[in-house]
Amino acid sequence: MRILVVDDDPFIQKLIGIHLKKEGYNTVFASDGLEALSYLNGEKFDLAIVDVMMPNMDGLSLTKRLVAREIPVLMLTAKTTLDDKEKGFLAGADDYIVKPFEPKELLFRVRAILRRFQKIERSHTLLGNMLIDRLTFEVKVDEQILLLPLKEFELLSILCSRPEIVFTRDQLMQQVWGYDYDGDDFTLTTHIKRLRSRLEKVNAQVKIQTIRGIGYKIEETK
Prior knowledge:
- This protein has 222 residues and is α/β, with parallel strands linked by helices.
- It folds into 2 domains: 2-120, Rossmann fold, CATH 3.40.50; 124-220, Orthogonal Bundle (Arc Repressor Mutant, subunit A), CATH 1.10.10.
- Helix content is 43%, strand content 24%.
- The chain contains 8 helices and 12 strands.
- The longest helix has 18 residues, at 103-120.
- It is elongated and about 55 Å long.
- It starts with a strand and ends with a strand.
- The mean pLDDT is 86.
């Protein structure tokens, strides 16, 4: 497992590095968001631990970039208010730990995220009565096979990769249509609407929720 640690405090880097190494993780360090981004083209990471307050590019901006590349993020910060935590989660962070922290707590949060992310990164994802097969691009609801257009399949697959997590409209547009797409986000609204309709027709036990002003999340319904 490779973990990217992004923090401008050398002491924090050293502390995290010692404990991650003891657990057998390979660790790469960056002192700000721009340095972290420079590693992404050449290396694959299973998790990023990201500080919020950093020079050049802050942790919230970096988190959005990492989530767009499907890298889970554990946010590390000295900020403790509910508003600060909300900003972190809305940026796409999978978990949040406040400085000063116990190394043991950091490790079990790392393990929890990796377990969750590895589970959903398999070729099959089950949510409610719906099974997504990324190898055949099929969606099976009970005994019905639902063949979706590619963009709708990609949207559904991304949303189901992290149930209950809010994906911003920008994140979905970037992951499905790419950074260079020059259309407007009405395209996303249309695809979500069609996807909802298809899922309702086959009585899928899932619901795509609109988070006003932010984006979408999917949740299981029973």
